[in-house]
Amino acid sequence: MRLGDLLDLVHLPNVIARECGPDAIRGLSRERGGVICDPRPSQREAHPSFSVYKDPKGRWRWKRHGGDEASGDALTFLEAIGYRPEHAREELARHAGVSLDSWTPSPSRPAYEAPDPLRAVRGALQRCAPLSPEDLGRVHVLLDYLSLQNAAGRDLQRRGLYGWQGLGAGQLRRDFLTQDGRMLAHAGALAFFLRGPDGKPWGLKVRNMGTADALQASGLDRYVYRIGRHGAPAWCSPKYGQGAGVLIVEGELNGAAAARALKLAGSSLDVQGLAGAGGAPFLTGLQNQTVFLYTDPDTAGAACLERVARVAHAAGAREIRVVAPFSEGDFCDLCGTLGAAVFGGLLMERVDGADYWQNTITGKNALPVINAVPDEENRLLANWQYSSGWGESDTSGWATDAGGWDSDDRGGW
């Protein structure tokens, strides 16, 4: 099969959803496409200018209006997000459900140099920085102490993290509003510091409590950033950089649960908790280390695992291993229900038995997908709650209050 015939079989919105997370295609029509924010890791944007459409022959194409003004088809999109040309063709065939045995490459297609996977991560990390003294000075009037008399404290207790010195957490003293009066979080919401690899706080993230339906009805996001203009950094475990390996987990609180549990189990692994399936890891501490990866066993988690594995490989990791998923729940759920010590023992068993990650399509060890939906049902175009690209924050840049804070780490809140 020639390249042109293969491209005619591929549905580009589904390719974007599976590679970048379902949230990346929010707003696209299955039949006509539309305009979304650029999902390519190196070309993040705040306002949609990435067109997805069918050309007059019915073949799906894309174009960025602004930015690098790039355009192309499904194959060039895969190359633009990090696939080498030969691997992009294999992945394109997999998306189309076509055997590679009959593959005939187009002789007229020019060679394409796929972007360095580290470039996208470095771009995301450039938007991240430790909180300044002025930022830290504002936290005192923003936060109050946690106790089991309030919902945020009980929520943290349910996750096995209440009172742990490794997590600096508190609750909002008052409602968090945008400058034009839109509600972002109510007083009493849980807030926790994002500790960087240097041990300093790099962000203050707020978790709105309640069911997904209740939050949607209230117009609230699950997570917002209380101190703006610091990007969406990963959470790093205390004394990061001194461990015998690195465990990278999807979700900051899951990372915190893993760090607490592993310490009780006698492990010396460093831990990073990503800002969701689209989060960018810190590159610090990956070189010459064994890197273990754990993401949710769903479509977005599998895409996250592949992205982060390629980044860890490019960053010089000695080896990369994939930790088998727990079917019983997230790390912070298990840490709370089983107890941190028991969960730590179970997690160590999974870490000890982790399989090697294998690069790209030929035999890769991706996570199993739970409740996978056939393409024709188009469930991937629904409103999923995942970040769609490296380092994209749920909400940021809204901080307006001022105050005081005199410590980098108020652990045990």
TrEMBL record:
Residues 391-413 are annotated as: Disordered. This is Toprim domain-containing protein.
